[in-house]
């Protein structure tokens, strides 16, 4: 049943809006209403318009509740979802699901309404009435301050069919339709529900719903067909008319080069649609003829830019062969077409816009005179419909003028800027997987993805909030609870937390790493004096290796009361961080401050001491020995001729000699990881070096290095040589075989194969940065068992080796790892040795109100006073699935006695678009995996979801499917076998959300 949406009766919709607003202060999950400025005097098509923005024809205008939520948030121009002769079940059967993917640029494989045409009309008329009521009752603006625009397609014969003709006529004048009369009579019969809306207000709701149409045609529709539809709408229907134009008007070469230059070279499309669609040289005269006809008839004419841009499915994005691209990658094409047409029409052609509009460009679009503007992709992301509020505020603060034409020069500048605007460029690296590997639980699912993504699960929202309040010492105390190296991780951490941050779906991650460093720098002087070792517990431990894993192991053990000695073969602690990582990355002072924490605890530190026998060391009375010696065996690039220099060896020499290393003039670094980036940057700074090349066998998109480190390399003028595999170094040159990318594997990484082409690169020195290996021989000499890959065999729960009391931590445990993973290992080992937890979790910080105040507000780091203003505190309130559902089918439920709101999925409102799956932080799809409310038992039988159907609300009798088994349930009976949490959730729905059940009545 899931994909079959059920239209709610008008009474249910109206009661839902009024009750939710009265009891929760929200409307269909939108928290902040937009109140229009009464002084706004915009008009289009002879009617008022309070803001020039709204939802585009698509998933956000298919049902009445979608339109209602948009209006409450600030939308005032509604391009209703396209209707055509194919509708209902026939059309729904043609849509592959899931049909929306909006993680970054957006793709979809859905098209016109999945309702029957009369149902679609009913949804639009119901929404028309409710918006008029909300305007007055909630004080949101002028009841006549918004407009509906119908979108019709796809050919003239279809538009002339009786059901389509009736749709158009009834949307022009609805007073004789059953649904109009039903809505009107219900309101008149329930005037007692309103505080401000009167009987006269209801009587005054106009019946001429729509006086404008947008023509939507399929790709390949000939120009004479498009013109015939427009003539029909003008001469027969007397409608103001816009024609949707496609980016294919720009030509294949322009589109391909633009997207390639902006990093979208992986988006696949051929020239078929460019050759088959309307051609620019045919479009211009047609548009001139239609403009003349509109002028003759006293009607408005314009173009809607743009319609869909079809691309091929190549990476299993959606279950289809072709999909439609939108969002940030469509913007440079759409705005270029707008500029081109505006130039050719001297700014006199009216343009309605859609195609990648969002908060960051909408003021410039409307400022050029291009409006109304409708959006889809931006409101399909977290924040959802609430994003309209910020966009409306920005536009109206700028001020809107009466339309007298388009500022062509400004629009052309906007089009030029779009091709280099960071908001529309593709990231240089593929987006990381932002999901956890856990399934979403039925209850208590709110989680902070940053915290879950951190190997040591730091209490990130807590310390970000404290740092924002200027309470740096308190923030540092929380950091130190789980993180022994705040200065090092605040500078060098691989920050998986930031990759997982929900804020990425808004604009960019909260700067978690930078906030940690800020807290460490400003809180250190206060906190360092408080650091103490724990009460002695009689445990004695030796740590071999003074790098991150060794320091962290000593920290957690000593803090818990163990006596700890660290053995380090170098003169100081710090390991690779001190002796290899270049000084331009991290200072010795920062390293020393992290070491000072264990010094304060009284940890004994023995430097210039190399341990060769683990057994001998343990025999000196240590209960446990932790080997934290790192992965220090150099990796190598095999060449048929010539030699390479190991990257770690070079970096150590570079640091020891302040960059005075003899490398010659031309240096080539081979590798694609973070060590390769450090190596290339250090080589660039080395005395005598004139040119540095970085060679990698794939393209930069597939490099394992962090994106910011790769960008730093490119910014410093280091030449990136992609798709090359070296095989010989001779006569001052590195010879490489040219590679080519093949098909992508399931992970999205392209395969690579050799070609016959040889490339020679000037190279006095070749440095290999291809990974280090664990010290297998050391392990074997000491009786530690290793596997066929040379890695020690460990108990994964404790990291203990086959030798009792001997543990591994850091790179030496499982191969090259991150600093924070070394800290994680230290926690695991300390817990195993002591037999107790060594860290504590913090209580969830913040309030629901603070969380909701930030939703839907885009603000980059440079725009915010502090990062806490940007942190969404997802462990307090997540609700991504609620935000992004176009149909509002995921509902946040307050359950008495439960600290966290609960999420239920409403089956009858869902069409399985799959958008919530993209943004759920779990490896789950809420529309399938959350506890589901069914309208009735029949609907439950057609679904596999766990959930419930209310049989009798008064007695709280339900049918429940749990773990795949359907049983009878009396939700308020403590002896019922359904567990208490789900019973309380069902009771809350029945008691406090009765409007959800009205569809069953």
Q: Which stretches are poorly predicted, pLDDT < 50 over at least 5 residues?
A: none
Mean pLDDT: 96
Helical fraction equals 25-40%
How far apart the termini lie comes to 18 Å
Into which percentage range does the β-strand content fall?
15-25%
Walkthrough of the structure:
Helix content is 36%, strand content 15%. By secondary structure, the protein is an alpha/beta fold. The strands form eight sheets. A six-stranded parallel β-sheet has the order 4-7-8-9-10-13. It is globular and about 95 Å long. The two termini are 18 Å apart.
Q: What attributes characterize this protein structure?
A:
single chain; 1001 residues; alpha/beta; 6-stranded parallel β-sheet; 6-stranded mixed β-sheet; 33 strands; 36% helix; 15% strand; globular
Task: Summarize it.
The protein has 1001 residues and is an alpha/beta fold.
Give the helices and strands, then pairings.
Blueprint: H1 10-24, E1 43-44, E2 47-48, E3 53-55, H2 64-73, E4 77-79, H3 88-92, E5 100-101, E6 106-108, H4 117-137, E7 147-152, H5 156-160, H6 162-172, H7 178-189, H8 199-203, E8 212-215, H9 223-236, E9 240-245, H10 252-261, H11 272-276, H12 280-297, E10 301-305, E11 309-312, E12 322-326, H13 331-344, E13 350-353, H14 362-367, E14 373-375, H15 387-398, H16 408-418, H17 449-453, H18 460-468, H19 472-482, H20 486-492, H21 496-500, H22 512-527, E15 540-544, H23 548-559, E16 563-567, H24 575-579, H25 588-600, E17 604-606, H26 614-618, E18 624-627, E19 645-646, H27 647-656, E20 666-670, H28 674-685, E21 691-695, H29 707-715, E22 719-721, E23 724-730, E24 733-744, E25 750-762, E26 765-768, H30 776-781, E27 806-808, H31 811-814, H32 819-834, H33 848-854, H34 880-884, E28 890-893, E29 902-906, H35 915-919, H36 926-929, E30 932-934, H37 937-941, E31 947-952, E32 957-962, E33 965-970, H38 980-992
Parallel strand pairs: 3-14, 4-7, 7-8, 8-9, 9-10, 10-13, 15-16, 15-18, 16-17, 18-27, 19-26, 20-21, 20-26, 21-22, 29-30, 30-31
Antiparallel strand pairs: 1-2, 5-6, 6-12, 11-12, 23-24, 24-25, 28-29, 31-32, 32-33
Helix pairs in contact: 2-4, 4-6, 4-7, 9-12, 13-16, 18-19, 18-22, 19-22, 20-22, 23-25, 23-32, 27-28, 28-29
């Amino acid at each position: 049943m899931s994909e079959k949406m059920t239209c709610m009766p008008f009474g249910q919709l109206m009661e839902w809006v009024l009750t939710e607003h009265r009891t929760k202060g929200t409307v269909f999950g939108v928290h902040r209403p937009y109140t229009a400025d009464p002084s706004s005097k915009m008009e289009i098509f002879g009617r008022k318009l309070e803001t020039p923005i709204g939802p585009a024809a698509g998933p956000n205008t298919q049902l009445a509740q979608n339109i209602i939520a948009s209006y409450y948030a600030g939308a005032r121009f509604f391009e209703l979802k396209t209707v055509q002769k194919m509708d209902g079940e026939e059309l729904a059967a043609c849509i592959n699901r899931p049909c929306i993917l909006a993680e970054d640029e957006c793709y979809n494989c859905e098209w016109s309404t999945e309702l029957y045409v009369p149902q679609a009309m009913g949804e639009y008329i119901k929404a028309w009435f409710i918006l008029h009521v909300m305007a007055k009752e909630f004080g949101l603006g002028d009841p006549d301050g918004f407009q509906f625009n119908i979108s019709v397609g796809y050919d003239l014969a279809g538009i002339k069919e009786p059901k389509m003709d009736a749709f158009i006529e009834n949307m022009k004048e609805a007073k004789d339709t059953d649904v109009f009369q039903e809505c009107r009579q219900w309101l008149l019969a329930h005037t007692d529900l309103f505080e401000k809306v009167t009987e006269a207000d209801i009587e005054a709701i106009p019946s001429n719903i729509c006086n404008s149409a947008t023509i939507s045609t399929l790709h390949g529709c000939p120009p004479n067909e498009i013109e015939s539809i427009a003539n029909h709408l003008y001469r027969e229907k007397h409608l103001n008319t816009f024609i949707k134009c496609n980016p294919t008007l720009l030509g294949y070469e322009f589109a391909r080069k633009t997207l390639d230059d902006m990093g979208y070279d992986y988006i696949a499309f051929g020239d078929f649609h460019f050759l088959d669609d309307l051609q620019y040289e045919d479009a211009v005269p047609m548009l001139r003829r239609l403009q003349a006809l509109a002028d003759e008839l006293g009607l408005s004419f314009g173009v809607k830019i743009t319609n869909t841009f079809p691309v091929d499915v190549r990476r299993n994005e959606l279950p289809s062969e072709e999909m439609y691209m939108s969002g940030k990658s469509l913007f440079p094409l759409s705005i270029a077409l707008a500029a081109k047409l505006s130039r050719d029409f001297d700014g006199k052609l009216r343009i309605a816009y859609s195609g990648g509009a969002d908060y960051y460009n909408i003021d410039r679009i409307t400022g050029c005179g291009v409006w109304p503007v409708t959006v889809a992709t931006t409101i399909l992301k977290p924040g959802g419909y609430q994003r309209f509020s910020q966009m409306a505020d920005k536009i109206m603060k700028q001020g809107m003028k009466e339309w007298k034409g388009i500022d062509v020069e400004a629009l052309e500048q906007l089009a030029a800027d779009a091709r280099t605007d960071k908001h529309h460029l593709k990231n240089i690296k593929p987006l990381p997987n932002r999901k956890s590997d856990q399934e979403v639980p039925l209850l208590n699912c709110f989680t902070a993805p940053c915290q879950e993504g951190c190997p040591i699960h730091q209490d990130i929202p807590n310390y970000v909030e404290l740092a924002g309040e200027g309470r740096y010492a308190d923030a540092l105390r929380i950091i130190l609870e789980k993180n022994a190296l705040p200065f090092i991780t605040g500078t060098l951490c691989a920050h998986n937390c930031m990759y997982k941050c929900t804020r990425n779906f808004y604009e960019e991650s909260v700067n978690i790493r930078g906030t940690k460093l800020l807290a460490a720098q400003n809180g250190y002087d206060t906190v360092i004096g408080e650091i103490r070792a724990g009460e002695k517990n009689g445990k004695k431990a030796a740590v071999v290796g003074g790098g991150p894993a060794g320091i962290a192991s000593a920290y957690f053990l000593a803090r818990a009361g163990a006596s700890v000695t660290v053995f380090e073969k170098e003169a100081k602690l710090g390991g690779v961080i001190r002796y290899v990582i270049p000084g331009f990355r991290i200072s010795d002072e920062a390293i020393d401050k992290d070491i000072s924490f264990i010094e304060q605890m009284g940890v004994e530190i023995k430097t210039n001491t190399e341990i060769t026998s683990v057994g001998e060391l343990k025999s000196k009375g240590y209960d446990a020995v932790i080997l934290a010696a790192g992965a220090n065996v150099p990796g190598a690039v095999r060449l048929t001729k010539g030699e390479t220099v190991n990257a770690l060896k070079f970096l150590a020499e570079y640091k020891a000699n302040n960059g005075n290393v003899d490398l010659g003039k031309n240096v080539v670094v081979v590798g694609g990881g973070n060590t390769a980036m450090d190596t290339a940057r250090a080589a660039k700074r080395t005395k005598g070096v004139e040119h540095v090349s970085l060679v990698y066998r794939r393209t930069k998109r597939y490099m394992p290095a962090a994106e910011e480190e790769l960008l730093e390399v490119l910014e410093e003028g280091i030449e990136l040589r992609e798709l090359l595999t070296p095989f010989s170094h001779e006569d001052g040159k590195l010879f490489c075989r040219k590679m080519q990318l093949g098909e992508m594997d399931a992970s999205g990484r392209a395969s690579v194969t050799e070609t016959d082409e040889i490339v020679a690169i000037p190279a006095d020195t070749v440095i290999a940065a291809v990974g280090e290996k664990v010290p297998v021989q050391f392990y074997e000499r000491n009786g530690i068992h290793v596997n066929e890959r040379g890695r020690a065999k460990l108990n994964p729960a404790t990291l203990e080796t086959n030798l009792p009391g001997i543990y591994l931590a850091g790179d030496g445990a499982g191969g090259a790892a991150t600093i924070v993973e070394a800290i994680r290992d230290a926690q695991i080992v300390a817990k195993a040795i002591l037999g107790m937890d060594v860290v504590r979790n913090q209580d969830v910080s913040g309030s629901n109100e603070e969380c909701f105040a930030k939703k839907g507000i885009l603000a980059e780091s440079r725009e915010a006073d502090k990062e806490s203003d940007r942190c969404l505190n997802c462990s307090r309130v997540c609700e991504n699935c609620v935000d992004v559902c176009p149909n509002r089918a995921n509902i946040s439920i307050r359950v008495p006695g439960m600290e966290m709101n609960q999420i239920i999925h409403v089956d009858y409102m869902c069409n399985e678009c799959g958008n919530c799956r993209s943004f759920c932080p779990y490896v789950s799809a809420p529309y399938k995996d959350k506890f589901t409310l069914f309208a009735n038992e029949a609907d439950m039988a057609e679904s596999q979801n766990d959930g419930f159907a209310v049989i009798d609300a008064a007695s709280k009798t339900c049918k429940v499917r749990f773990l795949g088994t359907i049983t009878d349930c009396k939700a308020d009976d403590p002896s019922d076998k359904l567990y208490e949490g789900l019973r309380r959730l069902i009771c809350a729905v029945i008691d406090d959300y009765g409007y959800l059940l009205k569809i069953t009545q």
